[in-house]
Amino acid sequence: MRNFDTDCVHPLNEELYNGAVTSGIQPAVAYEYIDRKTLQYPGFYSTYNQQRLGQIICNLEQGAWGMVFSSGMAAISTAILSFLNNEDHIIFSKDLYGGTLKFANDELPKRGIKCSFAGDVEAFKNLIHKNTRIIYIETPSNPLLNILPLEEIAAIAKANNILTIIDNTFASPINQLPLLHGFDISVHSGTKYLGGHNDLPYGALVSGSHENKDVIFNTAKMYGGSLTPYECYMAERSLKTLSLRVKKQNENALAIAEYLNGNTNIENVYYPGLFSHPQYSIAVKQMNGFGGMLSFELKTGFEGVTAFQQKLKLISPALSLGGVESLICSPAVTSHRYLTKEERYAIGIKDSLLRLSVGIEDTRDIIEDIQQAMQQAL
Ligand SMILES: *Cc1c(COP(=O)(O)O)cnc(C)c1O
């Protein structure tokens, strides 16, 4: 590990084919199983590019080993299913990515797995039973950017011999290294910051220990979800600018959060980098940057929210996040549309809430776009 900026550009610190300055694409899916020089059986199954990409992301997350998948959900479901059997119990953090929440509510119970949901450290502690195998969290969370204390949760889990998994998508390894705070496994939707261009779906898993490699690798093989060499190459290419992109997104998001915080059209701003954020001090302790995601409530009903998005010229009303383009969405009609209004309000997601994924455009242009849309719509 050198410094992040350098490691992103020169990830494996190796000599490449014929002095090339970038890696190649090796499409082979069949490899000789006898190493003719050493007469050893290397037993490789994954392709050259899959292995490279897994290793690169592992180095960025400072883990022991890593692997990649065809989507974030493939990485998440593989991580969870590798360790749970009939009658086992898993505790999730309350705020979850919609797909993970659906997986917990619809898929795991079919397999006889019990799921609970915790909103704070006390709740995690109180929900632990003899059959609890996994604690699974997201921090910062979607869409309200709640922060959970990594080290406290990891310590509680360790004391009870429970595996810890974090979805580190929102932070990216540039802003948060959960394995250094005691977490066992970090998963990513590479579709977001790691890919970074809103054009490449993939997923990644990094583990802090070699012990669980076989069980995860075997589950991954059974359920499919592998990434092609071409996509791996695209992902590797995107990672070269990861640090550059995320730092710019951090800067932009903080400036926008501060702008919105003082604006008369705004009810609330949710950004862990604001001093007024309820878990600001935890964020400062465990994050190296506050990220490019923020949410805010307009002082208007749902019609105003729609009109505001309609008037935006630079920022696109679109799902997904983490890319170079700024995107905005209304969780009430997108990620959380399956909940009733009462259920939504109970978890703090109002009709007036908007989630902004800040891109790498000039800060002034993003703010100007928000300003002109507010002037016209509100
Ligand atoms: C998008 C997302 C996922 C799912 O990733 P896919 O690549 O779309 O399968 C999981 N977790 C978080 C936090 C996400 O934002």
TrEMBL record:
SUPFAM superfamilies: PLP-dependent transferases. PANTHER family: CYSTATHIONINE BETA-LYASE, TRANS-SULFURATION ENZYME FAMILY MEMBER. It comes from Parafilimonas terrae. Keywords: Amino-acid biosynthesis, Lyase, Methionine biosynthesis, Pyridoxal phosphate. Its EC number is 4.4.1.13. GO terms for biological process: methionine biosynthetic process; transsulfuration. It is an enzyme of class 4 (lyase). Belongs to the trans-sulfuration enzymes family. Pfam families: Cys_Met_Meta_PP. Its cofactor is pyridoxal 5'-phosphate. This is cysteine-S-conjugate beta-lyase. Gene3D superfamilies: Aspartate Aminotransferase, domain 1 (3.90.1150.10), Type I PLP-dependent aspartate aminotransferase-like (Major domain) (3.40.640.10). The modification N6-(pyridoxal phosphate)lysine is found at K192. One of its GO terms (cellular component) is cytoplasm. GO terms for molecular function: cysteine-S-conjugate beta-lyase activity; pyridoxal phosphate binding. InterPro entries: Cys/Met-Metab_PyrdxlP-dep_enz (IPR000277), Cys_met_metab_PP (IPR054542), PyrdxlP-dep_Trfase (IPR015424), PyrdxlP-dep_Trfase_major (IPR015421), PyrdxlP-dep_Trfase_small (IPR015422).
